[in-house]
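User: Assemble these into one structure.

Assistant: Restating your components, then the assembled model:
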Amino acid sequence: MLILASQSPRRKTLLEWAEIPFEVMVSDTSETYPDTLPIENVPVYIAREKARAVASQLASAGTPQRMILAADTVVVLQDEIIGKPNSREEAITTLRKLSGNRHRVITGVVLLHDAGETAFADTTWVSFHPLTEEQIVFYVDKYQPYDKAGAYAIQEWIGVVGIQQVEGDFYNVMGLPVSRVVQVLNELGIRNQV
Amino acid sequence: MLILASQSPRRKTLLEWAEIPFEVMVSDTSETYPDTLPIENVPVYIAREKARAVASQLASAGTPQRMILAADTVVVLQDEIIGKPNSREEAITTLRKLSGNRHRVITGVVLLHDAGETAFADTTWVSFHPLTEEQIVFYVDKYQPYDKAGAYAIQEWIGVVGIQQVEGDFYNVMGLPVSRVVQVLNELGIRNQV
């Protein structure tokens, strides 16, 4: 069975919707990356660290290697990565920046398997309507988006009322480009339900 | 409180996510339209019929008029409306047509209110990966998409594993372009939560 190297409830939900059986195993990683790394490569770099940490854990426990899936999602506004907000103020500031603008969401995916590694990144463009200060404060205080890259979740209130347009894989914005993951699994001979 | 003139569980969910209070009231309509009507105008035409049927029902009961929201969603492939499938075979045939292709989803929205009527339609483009025959049959038999325009729901298995790209409002494909509805409600002075 596939190992999902992520605690994200959204990634678990997406694999469930895709009917891909999995179990979760996570090892801590720093989620840091070299300053010189091009932004587009950051999510795959971090996902690779997550996947390798779990592989090491399996190896040191003497457990046979299994297929490991890791992912990392970043929000990029004007060539700057917008991380998870560390405070209420930072969440509010972030949403002010995203308001009325178009940004990129890039999810990097790394699959470790018998034949080595398969890695790819998927980009979706998201356009926010102009948000009012009241909307931003309401959302931050009610939904507490402190564990969300870019301080929002597309499937929550702010995503439903505030997003004008998505270009690309919607589920990529939720944290996993599931349809591409399924295609790669099929290519690797790992069958989905069908 | 807003009246939603639709039984669709997906539209109810979307209004709940948007935190718009509503109650449901439905009157039967034929959902037919004149042959000469341009495709783009069909969903608003049908939504208007739904809204007016509820308004008549309120009027004949002597109930004061309330704001009524109705919507209708059509799937359009190469200038042909693909309706709800009437049989297993039709559902399978429909998905074969959508497989590997890009189609439009148009939702028409009609709001009846004190100042008259506000109507608009919103279009989202959806691209399916090529689907295998096994995937199509699995989906139809397990998910029974007989009440779905185009024989699929974007938030179900087939949407998660089979859709390559969305261009436009994702929630429009689920049956209601919620963010535009919220904007119109705001313009009409009906406030959302914030």
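The mean pLDDT of chain B is 94.
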